[in-house]
Design a protein that fits this description.
Blueprint (H helix, E strand, L loop, with lengths): L1 H19 L4 E5 L2 E6 L2 E4 L4 E2 L5 E2 L4 E3 L5 E3 L4 E4 L4 E3 L2 E2 L9
Antiparallel strand pairs: 1-2, 1-8, 2-3, 4-5, 5-6, 6-7, 8-9, 9-10
Length: 99
């Protein structure tokens, strides 16, 4: 049990540290939406609207303010300004999967 807890704690810390440099936002991790706020990572518990008007749902669906819809995949994240990243690299609109 302790080994499992330590592994989980290390994973959450590394995820938090990776996103801390970029600030608050959301990410898809192990097919679950996670929210980063004030350096802490937790399960996303409600839909969120980013400052650019994009809305991120708890299931990972993103409704862009221009009406486009996509589904976040593992490793994808979005900061609170609406900038989408995959594995901490910025993505262009044409690289996003439309669903």
């Amino acid at each position: 049990m302790n080994k499992y807890f330590l592994t989980l704690a290390a994973l959450m810390l590394s995820t938090s540290l990776a996103m801390a440099a970029d600030g608050d936002g959301v990410m898809m991790k192990d097919n679950k939406m996670m929210m980063m706020k004030d350096g802490k990572t937790m399960m996303m518990d409600k839909d969120m609207t980013m400052s650019n008007g994009d809305k991120v749902m708890m299931d990972g669906t993103v409704m862009m303010k221009d009406g486009k819809k996509m589904k976040m995949e593992n490793g994808m994240s979005m900061d609170m300004s609406g900038t989408m990243m995959k594995n901490n690299k910025m993505m262009n609109d044409d690289k996003m999967m439309k669903k």
